[in-house]
DNA sequence: CAGTGGTCTAGACCACTAT
DNA sequence: TAGTGGTCTAGACCACTGG
């Protein structure tokens, strides 16, 4: 792993372990350079990572400060939780409803940029958190990239397996969000009534090369659907 | 404006004007360095901006490619649209329902990090897009930062005025999302039935100094609530 | 005006891709 | 193995904050 990534991790761990709060000041650049024995740019790059991740904010002429969000029970929509995840550790589980090799519908083929007669893995499962139903997930994998899946893998973290087991490198993703009314079949799986609200998240995941390898539709129980995002951007 | 920002803007305009598509290749770093007559790091920084904005992706050993998302009718949740916004130009409007100086409830005071007897501006309005009702917005401003608002300002873009008129510099924001059932009063304003689905977005906006100055709750008509986000991150 | 973060450079070297 | 992007350095200079 590269230096600036290690440094970013160390700083984040430091913040976590010492339970620093919003506004707490970190050592100045000069100090961090000396402590990690690297050049200014390397520290800057590490802090930039943390800034994009919503862990710190930097104020020119003033210092580097810890950033926190205010609410519990909200999950990071972009699941870049880092270290916190391990600390909180919810009880999670999933029930596999379907797992098969099949052919894609047009919508799926379009999103995965493949042909209608190419093979895909189709996975359908319900995910639980703290013994409560969290979501219904339908996921489609380009089989020429994700070459093998079985029930065991699919009842754990699929993405962990894909990265560590298959060595696939994930580059980026497009995420689409909307709210709507539950259809009857979805409601049944989530133990809710049809017509009740639902929070829909559809995603396309790409390799570092830019090739899409996964499309997924996730329907959240609206009572569990609490997400947060931390932004830095340029505000129009 | 700094060099890397100008360069990023120019590259984005180039992509937009030439209507480049997903996967189209941009000139190599060497070429861009020569064309803009700057050092490698400056180009790298510009491309990093565009990468974070979801405009391009870079593949080591291969090149720099254009990134697009697939769906129309979805708004960027983080409204960093840049140039596209001006091209599409929807007809937008807003109806101001309330505008007053008042005192914050506890929840608001907490989010704005102020006292219960500090002054705030409270703004309530309905926003329209293409003559359709888009959302109901309730917004609270720390009055010691946002010192003045009137009906005219509030029926246009408040944030534009705050930045350009008051010279306030926005640093970052926390965004909270969830789905739920419309309350009766919300439903009335959105011309929907109560109990129908709603897409809720709550945000806290901070100055570059880290001080919060605005808290807002936005209730979207679920039929209009289609958002996208483009991510790059490290996937756990 | 001292202290602190941000921009920019020139150049060395590394890691991955494509052929 | 040539071509391309990524990391890292050392140092100059700039821009903002806060006493």
Set out the fold topology.
Two copies of one chain form a homodimer.
Chain A: H1 3-17, H2 29-36, H3 40-52, E1 56-59, E2 63-66, E3 75-76, H4 84-88, E4 92-102, H5 106-112, E5 120-129, E6 132-142, H6 151-155, H7 158-165, E7 170-181, H8 184-190, E8 197-207, E9 212-221, E10 226-231
Parallel strand pairs in A: 3-10
Antiparallel strand pairs in A: 1-2, 4-5, 5-6, 6-9, 7-8, 8-9
Helix pairs in contact in A: 1-3, 2-3
The structure holds a DNA duplex (19 and 19 nucleotides).
Number of strands of chain A: 10
CATH class of the largest domain in chain A: Alpha Beta
Indicate how many domains the architecture of chain A comprises: 2
How are strands sequenced across the largest beta sheet of chain A?
Answer: 4-5-6-9-8-7
- Reported by name, the CATH topology of the largest domain in chain A is Chorismate lyase
Radius of gyration of chain A: 21 Å
Q: Strand pairing plus helix content of chain A: what structural class? A: alpha+beta
Helix content of chain A: 25-40%
Helical element count of chain A?
8
Corresponding CATH architecture of the largest domain in chain A = 3-Layer(aba) Sandwich
CATH superfamily of the largest domain in chain A: Chorismate lyase-like
Largest sheet of chain A at a glance?
Answer: 6 strands, antiparallel
What would you say about this model in short?
2 copies of one chain form a homodimer. The first copy, chain A, is of the alpha+beta class. Chain A has 2 domains: 64 residues, Orthogonal Bundle (Arc Repressor Mutant, subunit A); 154 residues, Chorismate lyase-like (Chorismate lyase).
């Amino acid at each position: 792993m590269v230096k600036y990534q290690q440094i970013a991790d160390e700083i984040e761990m430091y913040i976590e372990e010492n339970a620093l709060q919003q506004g707490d000041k970190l050592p100045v650049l000069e100090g961090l350079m000396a402590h990690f024995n690297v050049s200014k740019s390397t520290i800057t790059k590490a802090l930039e990572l943390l800034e994009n991740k919503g862990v710190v904010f930097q104020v020119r002429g003033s210092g580097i400060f810890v950033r926190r969000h205010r609410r519990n029970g909200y999950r990071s929509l972009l699941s870049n939780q880092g270290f916190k995840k391990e600390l909180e550790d919810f009880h999670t589980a999933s029930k596999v409803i379907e797992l098969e090799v099949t052919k894609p519908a047009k919508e799926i083929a379009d999103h995965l940029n493949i042909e209608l007669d190419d093979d895909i893995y189709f996975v359908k499962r319900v995910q639980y958190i703290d013994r409560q139903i969290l979501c219904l997930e339908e996921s489609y994998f380009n089989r020429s990239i994700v070459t093998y899946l079985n029930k065991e893998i699919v009842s754990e973290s699929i993405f962990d397996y894909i990265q560590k087991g298959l060595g696939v490198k994930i580059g980026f993703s497009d995420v689409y969000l909307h709210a709507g009314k539950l259809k009857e079949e979805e409601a049944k799986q989530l133990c809710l009534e049809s017509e009740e609200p639902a929070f829909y998240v559809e995603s396309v995941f790409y390799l570092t090369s830019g090739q899409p390898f996964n499309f997924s539709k996730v329907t959240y129980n609206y009572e569990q659907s609490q997400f947060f995002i931390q932004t830095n951007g340029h505000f129009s």
